[in-house]
Amino acid sequence: MGTLLLSLLLTQHGLQPQLRLAEVHVDAGPMLQQDAHQVLARRRAAFRACYTAAVYKDPSLSGRARLEVQIPAHGRAESVEVERPEAWPQALEDCLERVVMQTRFAVPEGASGVSRVRFDLHVWLEEGPPEPRTQ
User: Fold this and answer.
1) DSSP letter string, 19-86
2) What is residue 1's three-state secondary structure?
3) Per-residue pLDDT tens for 62-101?
4) Strands 63-71, 15-28: parallel, antiparallel or unpaired by DSSP?
5) What is the 3-state secondary structure (H, E, C) of 74-112?
6) What does DSSP assign to residue 48?
7) Rg for the chain (alpha carbons), in Å?
8) Would you tell me how many other CB atoms lie within 10 Å of the CB of residue 96?
9) What is the rounded distance in angstroms from the CA atom of residue 42 to the CA atom of residue 64?
10) Is the pLDDT reported for residue 135 higher than 60?
């Protein structure tokens, strides 16, 4: 079932999957923290789609995942480690990893070395109508 359809079904029941990107840090390497945050923020919808698919099967899913990504100078993730609550299904972890592995990160031109980026994703299911979109 597609993510849009899942979102509509949850909305019909007054439930809205929520996701917040937090604590983005570049612990090592040439990547700039603001660049890492901007790239990850643009992938928020893809991360939310992972959560939406999982929460449809188990509405009790909520919490925080911490992801740590190794990114060489070419900008594609080399590895992803996910620290998550035990109750979360493996499929959710796999989906989050896939999103990161498909992401192209902004690494300064001519940079060398591997950047280590870590960030948190907070997810929860909220009751009520969807919030209006702002431009």
Assistant:
1) EEEEEEEEEESS--HHHHHHHHHHTHHHHHHHHHHHHHH-TT--EEEEEEEEE-TTSB-SEEEEE--T
2) coil
3) 999 999 999 999 999 999 999 999 999 999 999 999 999 9
4) unpaired
5) CCECCEEEEECCCCCCHHHHHHHHHHHHCCECCCCCCCC
6) H
7) 16
8) 23
9) 19
10) no
**Identity (one letter) of the amino acid at 36?**
A
Q: Which residue has the tokens 């992803």?
A: 80
Residue with tokens 């099967």: 57
Tell the residue number behind the tokens 């890492």, with chain if given: 36
- Pair 92, 47: CB distance under 8 Å: no
3-class secondary-structure state, position 66: strand
Residues whose CB falls within 8 Å of the CB of residue 63, separated by 6 or more in sequence, listed in order: 84, 85, 87, 88, 122, 123, 124
Contact by Cβ (8 Å): 122, 19:
yes
- Which residue matches tokens 């698919």? 53
Neighbours of 115 (CB within 10 A): 26
Query: Residue 121 gets which letter from DSSP?
Result: E
Nearest to 88 by CA among 65, 66, 68: 65
C-alpha 125/C-alpha 98 separation (Å) is: 22
Closest among 125, 103, 131 to 9, alpha carbons compared: 125
